[in-house]
Structures are given as C-alpha cells and as structure tokens.
Amino acid sequence: MSTTSPSPSPKLAIEVRDLHKSFGDQQALRGVNLVVPEGTTCVLLGVSGSGKTVLMKHIMGLLQPDRGSVQVEGEDIAGMNESALSEMRRKQGILFQANALFDSLTVFDNVAFPLRERTRTPEKEIAELVNKTLERVGLSHATQRFPGELSGGMQKRVGFARATILQPKILLYDDPTAGLDPLTTAAVNEIITTGKQQLGATSVVITPDVASAFGMADHLALMHEGRVVEYGPPDTFRESQHPEVKAFLRNWLQRRAQSRRAAQA
Ligand SMILES: Nc1ncnc2c1ncn2[C@@H]1O[C@H](COP(=O)(O)OP(=O)(O)OP(=O)(O)O)[C@@H](O)[C@H]1O
C-alpha cells in the first residue's frame, strides 16, 4: 500500500460561486464561478460588457451579490460590515486605468501616502520603505519629481509602487495598459509579473491585450454574457474547443493581423 498522501489542494485567495448580479433588468452576472489559488495570476478576458469589471468590483467588496457568494481569503464579502469591507480593501492593491496620482505631490509623497494615511509608521521608516519600493520599480532617480513631469510608463510604475507599499496579498488590475504605447505596455506587463514574484501576491487582471494575457497568466478565464465559460492555464486555454473561446481567439488573431497590415502600409 502506498504511504504517499495526496498533495494538499492549493489555498484559494478568491472563490466565487454562482454569482449573480443585475442592475434593473440588465443581468450583468448570471452565475459566475471562479477560483484563484494563492500566489497565482488570473487574467479575465471577454468582450466589452461581458461582466469583467462587475466581477472585479465584487472581489473588491464594492458590490454585493444578488445571489451566490464571493470569498476573499476565506471570508465571505456578504457577511462583512462597512469597516470589515474597508479593512479588506486595505489589503488589496488596486491599479485601474487612471493612475489617480496626486499631481501636487512628489513621487515620494505619492508612494508614502498610504503609509501616512493608514498606518502610524514613523517618518524614518516611511523613507526607508518608500525608497526601497521606488528602487524596486526603477524610479530611485525620480523621487522628487511630480507626476506631470513623468512619462506614462513611469506614472504607472509610481501607481504600482503606491498600490503595493502596504504589501497587499491581492493585486487587482483593470486594463492597466489602456492607451499606452507598446514599449510602456511591455513595462507594465513586467511590473505585473514582478508583483507576483517579489510580493508573492495573488493577482486578478482585466486586459484586452490577449498576447500579454498569455504571457503573464497562470490561468485565463473567458467571460461571456455574465459567466465564466472557460478557465484554465494558457496552454489548455489556447487549445480549448469551446465555441466562445475559439471565436474570441479567432477574432483577436484577425484584429492583430489587420493592425500589422495597417502598420506596414
Ligand atoms: N452600475 C451599473 N448600472 C447599470 N448597468 C451596469 C452597471 N455596471 C455595469 N453594468 C452593465 O453590466 C454589464 C457588464 O459590465 P462590465 O463593466 O462588467 O463589462 P466589462 O466586461 O468590464 O466591459 P468592458 O470591457 O467594456 O469594461 C454591462 O452590460 C454594463 O452595461
């Protein structure tokens, strides 16, 4: 008889079961199931209006389910009062399209902001932490600059530094590369991978950039009409026979070929 015990299943950072959400007669989510194991990156794909942002807002505790459940680090968001919800959000690093940096604060003060606002960390320690974090994103030379003096990619890196200064266990990105040029997009994708490697954080990323998604994801989830219709590691996802996945990938390849032709013309 074998004495080998089965390897324990990975701990789940996020567990969404049968999540439904409507706005009036608009059914945004129609039974979403999704699990994100701790320390992994899950990328949500799907056409506009498929429900990605509404799902993300549940994970942030900004929306409450009509039906079903959303557990974040083992706790159901439905059971949380306002202070528990804001405590949970404090543990999440959130990077949306707009960097939402404070224009009148230097890079250093932008990154120090969450520490000063939410903790009683002494200024000396704040300086050490902020400098270390800015070094990690390659911005040690820009600490005294203002956001308006930085490139788009540098602003994203400041946003990332600020979102991660409290060492969040969960990082949420909604279209972080929107409107950025290819070089800056590559830099942001690298930042997302760095977040996983350096912080061991669990990440959920919404991006229309399918090539980047394949590069960074441990799992890809395709949303279609308010449900996750396919979920799996990149290799499995790419080979999926699900008609919606096939249509989604075909469409992406066509768009990519078109834009390459346009660029060559
Ligand atoms: N506050 C709201 N009130 C009414 N309808 C909403 C609200 N938020 C989202 N919806 C609707 O829910 C559906 C899903 O929206 P969601 O923003 O999640 O889509 P998405 O997949 O993130 O799209 P996109 O890629 O364009 O951001 C859409 O039909 C949207 O119009």
From TrEMBL:
<dbReference type="GO" id="GO:0016887">
    <property type="term" value="F:ATP hydrolysis activity"/>
</dbReference>
<protein>
    <submittedName>
        <fullName>Methionine ABC transporter ATP-binding protein</fullName>
    </submittedName>
</protein>
<dbReference type="InterPro" id="IPR003593">
    <property type="entry name" value="AAA+_ATPase"/>
</dbReference>
<keyword id="KW-0067">ATP-binding</keyword>
<dbReference type="GO" id="GO:0005524">
    <property type="term" value="F:ATP binding"/>
</dbReference>
<dbReference type="InterPro" id="IPR003439">
    <property type="entry name" value="ABC_transporter-like_ATP-bd"/>
</dbReference>
<dbReference type="Pfam" id="PF00005">
    <property type="entry name" value="ABC_tran"/>
</dbReference>
<dbReference type="InterPro" id="IPR017871">
    <property type="entry name" value="ABC_transporter-like_CS"/>
</dbReference>
<keyword id="KW-0813">Transport</keyword>
<feature type="domain" description="ABC transporter">
    <location>
        <begin position="14"/>
        <end position="250"/>
    </location>
</feature>
<dbReference type="InterPro" id="IPR027417">
    <property type="entry name" value="P-loop_NTPase"/>
</dbReference>
<keyword id="KW-0547">Nucleotide-binding</keyword>
